[in-house]
Design a protein that fits this description.
heterodimer, A: mainly beta, about 10% helix, globular, B: about 325 residues, Peroxisomal Thiolase, Chain A, domain 1, 4-stranded mixed beta sheet, ChsH2_C (chain A), NA-bd_OB-fold (chain A), ChsH2 C-terminal OB-fold domain-containing protein (chain A), Thioester_dehydratase-like (chain A)
Chain lengths: ~170, ~325
């Protein structure tokens, strides 16, 4: 593996060669094939990727394909962008999405909650009209923003194939 | 007569019942009444104690589990209002101007639901605390302040990302308070002044709830009913805190509580012949910020929602 560096809306994104966990995570994302680690001891998946299992402390993990569908658990609507490259896209949403997979495990309050921006199906940051439609409870599916050769960011877009509940918005 | 709406064979629900409904419920075979309405929402509603008495008289078991809504933006803004009043009496504060709830809500949105005035600013500064033995402290020029209890970097049951582990409405303080109050041998109601981490207005609410100064869900009321203002029952961040005095990652609130416990806060009060201020306890703008004779303070620290530290100090 080697150090990788990409530019995303003027931000420098770096993946160090030594960061084997994130190198593998983003290699799957680059193929638009979402994977998380499942613990070899307790079998539970976790997010974000890490060297150990947060549920049982196990160190041995197996990369496992995960369906990218879920429900918005919480969100923040950013009105004032800090990064200049994001300013033309305000307001934009940061979504915390609870995956359908492993929801309610190991306890009723726990789940795989995956961050991402709300984007259009092509991976570009969502339009103001789309932002106004999404809130807590919205059904979303994973799509990718392709940043460069071998690097994509997993993101979320409104899932138009399923009924949408009336979302809660501030 | 209220309607008991069938949900399952084990459960029915009703809007506000009257005391006469309880005998009817017992006659229909119900065994337990769960009251989810907080007392005092409507002057016409029976209190929990009245409902319980009528339920017991009818042979029913009773549980009171009040469910409240979250805080309103106006209540959250009250944190900034109180801290700005305190800062106006702190000559060293960065933002000394008093603001109103309307000022907070009219300031521009940064990141919903936080307005500009719900946020602190980054500031350059330096702070230091000198900790020594109690014996040596008694030999120093300043009145000593004793550390009664410390919670050092207490975390939720799992230490990685707070947002993965529930319930996310409970922050580190919910777990740290078991250590804090037991070690101190005092309870929240014994505390004269609190110092909360207020990088944002809402963090103060969550800490005050989770450390037990009010019940969960009542933080909005607690911070907006006058309790946390100078002159109130338990002022919070009397220096103005991070929202107004300046951002120091929590440590300036410890320094402020030490000043308060020495009864020697630096404010707008006149200097006495011994070189110490004569505190007027007049908390109007530009005036006093010394609390009257405080003996115990609590500092509530916040590393992240899932990890925090806390401390109780006592005037020697």
């Amino acid at each position: 593996m080697q150090d990788k560096q990409f530019d995303y809306l003027g931000m420098s994104l770096q993946l160090a060669a030594i960061d084997e966990v994130n190198q593998t995570y983003f290699a799957h994302c680059a193929r638009h094939d979402f994977h998380l680690q499942a613990c070899n001891a307790c079998r539970l998946l976790h997010y974000p990727p890490s060297a150990g299992c947060p549920w049982c402390g196990g160190a041995a993990q197996t990369w496992t394909r995960v369906q990218g569908q879920g429900t918005v658990y919480s969100y923040s609507e950013v009105v004032q962008a800090i990064q200049p490259g994001f300013k033309p896209h305000t307001p934009y949403l940061v979504l915390l999405v609870e995956l359908d997979e492993q929801r309610g495990k190991p306890s009723e309050h726990e789940a795989l909650r995956v961050f991402g921006n709300l984007v259009m199906p092509d991976g570009q940051l969502a339009s103001p009209e789309a932002v106004a439609q999404v809130g807590i409870g919205s059904r979303v599916r994973m799509v990718y923003t392709d940043i460069g050769e071998g690097f994509s960011i997993p993101q979320w877009t409104l899932d138009l194939d399923t009924p949408q509940p009336e979302p809660w918005r501030y | 007569m209220s309607e008991f709406r069938y949900v399952t064979d084990q459960l029915s629900v009703a809007p506000q019942i009257s005391l006469a409904d309880l005998a009817a419920a017992a006659a229909q075979g119900f065994r337990l009444v769960i009251n989810n309405r907080p007392d005092g929402e409507d002057p016409a509603q029976p209190t929990s104690a009245e409902v319980e008495a009528a339920a017991r008289a009818a042979g029913l078991d009773y549980a009171y589990i009040p469910v409240r809504g979250g805080p309103t933006p106006e209540q959250v803004a009250a944190v900034k209002v109180a801290h700005s009043e305190h800062a106006s009496n702190n000559p060293k504060a960065l933002y000394k101007k008093r603001v109103t709830v309307d000022d907070v809500l009219a300031s521009r949105m940064i990141c919903k639901p936080l307005h500009l005035l719900d946020c602190c600013t980054e500031s350059d500064n330096a702070t230091a605390l000198i900790v020594t033995s109690a014996a040596r402290a008694r030999d120093c020029r300043q009145h000593p302040v004793l550390i009664e209890s410390v919670v050092g970097r207490c975390s939720k049951p799992r230490t990685d990302n707070h947002f993965q582990h529930g319930p996310i409405t409970l922050t580190a303080g919910h777990y740290g308070r078991e250590i804090l109050w037991r070690n101190a041998g005092v309870l929240p109601e014994d505390i004269d002044i609190t110092g909360s981490y207020d990088a944002f207005t809402f963090t103060t609410l969550m800490q005050l709830e989770d450390y037990g100064f009010c019940r969960k869900g009542e933080g909005g009321d607690y911070v907006s009913n006058g309790t946390i203002r100078l002159g109130g029952k338990r002022p919070n961040n009397t220096s103005g805190g991070h929202l107004c005095e300046g951002y120091t990652h929590g440590i300036s609130m410890v320094i402020e509580n030490v000043r308060q416990l020495r009864h020697d806060v630096d404010d707008g009060c006149p200097m006495g012949p011994d070189g110490r201020r004569v505190h007027t306890h007049d908390y109007r703008e530009g005036g006093c910020r010394q609390v009257k004779d405080p003996q115990l303070t609590a500092n509530l620290g916040w590393h992240s929602p899932g990890t925090g530290s806390a401390m109780v100090l006592r005037r020697a």
